[in-house]
Each structure stands twice: as structure tokens, then as C-alpha cells.
Amino acid sequence: MTQFTRRKFLIATGTAAIAGPWVHTARAAEFEYKFGTNLPATHPLSARLIEATKAIKEQTDGKLNIRVFPNNQLGGDPAMFAQLRSGALEFFTVSGANALSSLVPKAAISGVGFAFKNYDQVWQALDGDLGKHIRAQITGAGLVVMDKIWDNGFRQITNNVKPISTATDLSSMKIRVPIGKLWISLFESLGAAPSGISFNEVYSALQTHVVDGQENPLAIASVARLYEVQKYCSLTNHMWDGFWVLSNKNSWNKIPPRLQEIAAKNFNEYAVLQRKDIAEMNSQLRKSLEEKGMVFNTADPASFRDKLRSSNYYANWRKEFGDEAWALLEKLSGKLA
Q1: Which domain holds residue 47?
Q2: How far from 224 is each of 3, 59, 150, 155, 210, CA to CA, in Å?
């Protein structure tokens, strides 16, 4: 198993990003596919995807060659999701609460605000009955989805105004969120002024003060250099976010079953490795970001949950997702609404 320190990780990914899926071999691939993702090449998700696709190419004797395009090279999430559905893009990794929820509304349930307290709850839910329920919804919408969800992490709030300690500190704050109904609803319910902006535009929106803050896992704040344009980082753990690996159904069905099996096996195995990368990276990131000038504080989750209950956020989303899916969520999260 690869042992990652953050330094080794960045060095390794820099090498992998160049050498991974672009290595020339004499054998011509029968299937030349593209894989789009919105995260930088130095993020554990992009790095492990490059490793996974390299393994797939080797194990299929070069028959299936999947090139990874990180960092929104193929467009923002809405654009890549549209390409995936049309068949112009064969693979895409996307948050269930983001672009995917426009087609599969129940995929957003894993991102309900302040639902999961820790990773034990997350993996029991997403590798268990809740994940199975979500994957069935995705399959029913005409997409192919791998079994294991990749980790984006618990999300934190950064801004240039003040530390966020309780829900009242968010009142009227202009904050960037991904383009997704669940995110908009969460921050509106908390009294903030959210604005849906694609990730490739986040840095400039913060730099030019279009918004005061944003929310993302620490790994993204680091690799996207958001510390250059943000001062305060409040550890809220307000939402857990993960990425499903999706494939266009027609493109997937063109691949022979044996090659499908190899691809799925590697995507699922590397998902587990990537989860460990995120855990290790997160354990080091607070110190690293503090050294770069960010000021940290830990928020009180109880005040946020109380605000969400009083604003009917939980009650409204229970109606939206339905009793069956909500029961699967509360099986691990505890009573929310």
C-alpha cells in the first residue's frame, strides 16, 4: 500500500499526472475513453484516478485506455455532466448533491446538513443500505455507477469577514456554494446569502469579493490555494461530500464484460485507497494552512442543527427525499426531523 505524506503525495501526483494515462505503448487501444473531474491533479481523487486508469490499461493489455482530465479541463460540473449524458464524455466523477442531483434528486441525501458526525457513520451509510438505495436511483436514471463512492470530505467554511462559531454568525454573509439545490437550501436556512458558482470560478470570485466566503473540505482549500484569498477557516463539518464514479451507459455497454469487470474492480479498490489519502491529508492540513496565515476556530454544531430544525430545513428535505430514503439516512445519523 502506498504511504502518503502530504509532501510525498504532491511529488508523486505531479509525476503521475504526467506519466499516468498518457504513456505511449505499441498496442493500440480498442477503447479510447475520457474521464473528467473538477479537482486539481494534486488532489487525492485525481491522483488515484490516474493510478486506477493506468492499472486498468495494464490489466486489459492496453485494450481500455481511459485518459483523466483533471481541474475542469473539459468544463465545469454542469458542462461535464451534460457531456456524460450525451456520450461526448465517457466517465465523470460528481458529487451527489451537485450536478447529479439535477437528474437524480435522491442522490443529494448524503449531503444533508449536519447529518453525519464522523466517518464511521458516513461509510456505514454509503457502503451500506443508503448507498445501495442511491445507486439504484442513479442506475434507474440511465447511468452506470461504481459501487464505492470517493471521499471529498467534511466541508468547512472559510471567509474574509469573521470566524463562524454559531449559526447567527452566518447572517447575511455572501458565500459561494456549488450549483446545487441542497447547498442553496442549507445556507439560506442558516441565514446566509449563498451564490451558486462553479468551482473553476471560485478563486476569482473570492479574490474580487463577489462573495465573502466559500465552503469546501480542507484538502480543496489547500490544493486550490484558497488560503491566498481567505483569512478565517471555521471547522463546521456542516456537510459530508463524496464523488460517485459514473459512466455513460452506451459507452460502458460497448466494453466487453471482462473489461468492465477490470474497470469496476480498480475504480472501487482505488476509491478505498483515496479515502485513506484524504484521512491522512486532513490530519496534517490544519497546521499547514495555519502556517500559511489562516486563522482557525471550531464551531458549535448544536446551534446549526437547532437553526435548521426551526427553519424546517430537515422537515422539508424529508418530504423531498421521501420516507424510505430518510429512514436509511437517520438509521446512521440519528433523528433529524
Answers
A1: 6-107+118-151+243-286
A2: 23, 33, 19, 14, 18
